[in-house]
């Protein structure tokens, strides 16, 4: 079997030192500790061929065409561009932030563990424009007396960005990192104590990783909230094509440089391709969407090409599950979460996620109205946050 060993780059260390001086660490009502965790990670990854992390946009676009065009027979794409599975081992510097309520925790044995999605780093969970903390889930949780831990996915924020945007930065690596942090929360390696109850909250690709975590490490967390998620892949090919993902250093030349990110690190091409996929007008404030755009984070083509692979049920997960997806989510509901097949016994598309959780102690869905994919940043967010907190408290107080 092939294998690959990844070593930390000096460029990343310089970038990190420059960036940390300016970024917000947490909300006004919490004591937050941000640090770099050097994680030793080993995962079985898809081995790519005929790809190059520094290929030009012409070639990256061609790859995207072939990937999308191969659906639903993904075999055509994998014949040409994938050559099996290999073990990838590396040590990755990942920036994580633990926030404890300023006024104390309701129960210090419990924590919410937050995994963000594509286009963001962990500031998705503590989104604030100036002093306005309306859209910060970390703030809402601290106000409810609950601690949170969040981290920047590999290749985003203050975490390092390995140059290999295919074989290293792809879904199995991200899932292995997600599992590692859950284990560290359990064993007391994050903050000052071990957490006995953990509620995992994912958003979008963070939910895909969270679902994989419940399959591969079913006792690592006690409950899971999958936001901006469903098991219906109908609109996924449309998402890959209509975002028009483009080399990040071309779209945002003042924020990302080719020295920092290889070409296959991508962002949405324009505010309109971003709106189409992520926002439901008029359910959000333009100033919030503008700020999200101004701080957009990249995703590798390797993640995009592996994100839908190997989604399997979690028959051993016995915790509670809630799925929260905006009624107008384009990617996971094709803009209408109530468009279930005729005579369906399920009330909405996200409710089918229950099929992945045959042993869950509890399952339900919550579908906020007038809400697109970025649920934390639509006007419905404050109400959604209370729904998420209520779920977490139910898990924390269950016997
Ligand atoms: C882009 O890369 C491809 C493949 O290497 C090459 O054939 C093509 O000429 C390049 N296009 C530009 C504009 O550089
Ligand atoms: C793509 O896959 C389909 C189904 O497996 C097959 O019928 C077709 O010949 C393939 N096309 C190419 C160009 O390989
Ligand atoms: C705190 O939560 C834990 C579960 O994580 C539970 O066992 C314990 O009884 C709770 N403590 C109080 C004082 O409610
Ligand atoms: C696919 O998922 C299963 C668990 O359902 C896991 O055992 C297997 O390693 C995964 N395969 C790959 C290639 O990631
Ligand atoms: C999947 O989504 C499509 C597009 O919204 C919809 O037509 C179909 O009914 C959905 N299927 C299920 C099983 O939810
Ligand atoms: C839905 O149920 C009705 C009544 O049982 C039946 O007549 C109809 O054929 C069903 N439609 C589909 C698409 O299964």
Which descriptors apply to this entry?
399 residues, alpha/beta, Rossmann fold, 9-stranded mixed β-sheet, 3-stranded antiparallel β-sheet, 31% helix, binds 2-acetamido-2-deoxy-beta-D-glucopyranose
List the helices and strands and how they pair.
Blueprint: E1 3-6, H1 10-20, E2 30-48, H2 57-69, H3 75-81, E3 82-101, E4 110-115, H4 137-143, E5 147-151, H5 171-187, E6 197-203, H6 205-216, E7 223-227, H7 236-242, E8 246-247, H8 248-251, E9 265-267, H9 271-278, H10 286-294, E10 299-300, H11 301-306, E11 320-324, H12 330-333, E12 362-366, H13 381-397
Parallel strand pairs: 1-3, 4-5, 4-6, 6-7, 7-11, 11-12
Antiparallel strand pairs: 2-3, 3-5, 8-9, 9-10
The structure holds 2-acetamido-2-deoxy-beta-D-glucopyranose (6 copies).
One 2-acetamido-2-deoxy-beta-D-glucopyranose (NAG) is lined by residues 232, 234, 333-334, 339-341, 349, 352.
């Amino acid at each position: 079997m092939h294998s690959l060993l990844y070593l930390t780059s000096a460029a990343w260390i310089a970038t990190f030192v420059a960036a940390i001086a300016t970024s917000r660490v947490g909300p006004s009502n919490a004591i937050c500790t941000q640090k770099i965790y050097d994680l030793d990670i080993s995962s079985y990854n898809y081995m790519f061929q005929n790809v190059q992390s520094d290929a030009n946009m012409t070639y990256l676009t061609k790859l995207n065409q072939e990937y999308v065009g191969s659906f639903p027979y993904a075999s055509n794409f994998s014949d040409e561009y994938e050559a099996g599975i290999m073990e990838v081992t590396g040590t990755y510097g990942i920036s994580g932030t633990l926030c404890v309520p300023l006024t104390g925790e309701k129960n210090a044995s419990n924590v919410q563990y937050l995994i963000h999605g594509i286009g963001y780093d962990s500031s998705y969970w503590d989104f604030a424009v100036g002093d306005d903390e309306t859209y910060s889930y970390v703030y809402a949780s601290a106000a409810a007396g609950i601690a949170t831990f969040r981290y920047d996915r590999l290749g985003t924020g203050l975490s390092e960005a390995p140059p290999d945007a295919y074989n290293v930065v792809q879904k199995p690596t991200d899932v292995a990192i997600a599992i590692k942090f859950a284990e560290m929360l359990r064993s007391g390696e994050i903050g000052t104590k071990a957490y006995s109850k953990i509620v995992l909250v994912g958003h979008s690709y963070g939910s895909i990783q969270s679902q994989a975590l419940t399959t591969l490490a079913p006792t690592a967390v006690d409950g899971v909230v999958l936001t901006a998620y469903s098991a219906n892949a109908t609109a996924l090919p449309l998402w890959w094509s209509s975002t028009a993902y483009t080399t990040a250093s071309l779209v945002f030349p003042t924020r990302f440089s080719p020295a920092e990110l290889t070409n296959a690190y991508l962002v949405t091409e324009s505010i309109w391709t971003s709106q189409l996929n992520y926002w439901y007008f008029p359910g959000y404030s333009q100033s919030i969407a503008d700020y999200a755009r101004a701080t957009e984070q990249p995703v590798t083509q390797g993640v995009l090409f592996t994100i839908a692979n190997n989604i399997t049920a979690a028959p051993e997960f016995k915790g509670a599950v809630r799925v929260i997806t905006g009624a107008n989510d384009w990617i996971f509901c094709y803009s209408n979460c109530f468009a279930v097949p005729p005579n369906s016994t399920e009330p909405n598309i996200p409710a089918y996620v229950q099929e992945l959780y045959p042993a869950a102690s509890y399952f339900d869905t919550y579908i906020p109205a007038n809400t697109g994919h970025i649920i934390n940043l639509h006007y419905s967010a404050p109400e959604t946050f209370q729904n998420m907190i209520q779920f977490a408290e139910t898990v924390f107080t269950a016997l």
